[in-house]
Specification:
The structure is a single chain. By secondary structure, the protein is an all-alpha fold. It contains five helices and no strands. Helix 3 (76-92) runs antiparallel to helix 4. The longest helix is centred in the first third of the chain and has 52 residues, at 20-71.
Length: 173
């Protein structure tokens, strides 16, 4: 804005040190420049909103197809896993907020319940499934813990190096 204000002074030949009115006009030119810089952002935001809406629609369509594919699975144990994953994906993209999505998610949830009930009757209890889920979650947490410990070690090494560099720079002063 200062550059625009200087150009305005040069073009108009105003003496802003003597005339307060001319100084106000120069400030208005600088402020106008700032406001003008915000105009392209409106176009960019409009495009970003449209792109996000298109992406959401695409993801919702994929989630609906994933539910349909999971319902066609013939192996009951694979069907349970596929339905759980499909329902989770549908919830992430709020498929139930669409016209057909609410009924598709409800039907898939009902189908999942019936498959789990029949699987439980055939030998696998809900406790067995719960233990399996807990074991999977534990394995994921152990892996994540290992990653975080590695990152922590790297950060500690970096911190030590920076402290030594800082100490060296202070001694040189």
């Amino acid at each position: 804005p200062g550059f625009v204000m200087d150009i305005t002074i040069s073009i108009t030949g105003w003496d802003v040190t003597r005339d307060g009115n001319e100084q106000n006009w120069v400030y208005c030119a600088g402020l106008g420049f700032i406001f003008a810089c915000g105009l392209p952002a409106m176009w960019v935001m409009g495009r970003a909103v449209q792109a996000a809406a298109d992406l959401l629609e695409d993801l919702q369509s994929k989630a609906q197809k994933q539910i349909q594919k999971a319902e066609r699975e013939t192996d009951p144990s694979k069907r349970v896993i596929a339905l759980k994953d499909a329902i989770k994906a549908a919830r992430k993209v709020e498929l139930s907020a669409t016209t057909d999505g609410a009924s598709v998610v409800a039907a898939a949830t009902e189908h999942l319940g019936s498959v789990q009930a029949s699987e439980g009757a055939s030998g696998a209890t809900s406790d067995d499934l719960s233990v399996s889920r807990k074991t999977d979650a534990h394995a994921e947490l152990v892996a994540r813990n290992s990653q975080l410990q590695d990152l922590n070690n790297q950060l500690q090494e970096r911190n030590t190096k920076l402290e030594l560099e800082n100490k060296t720079l202070r001694e040189d002063e």
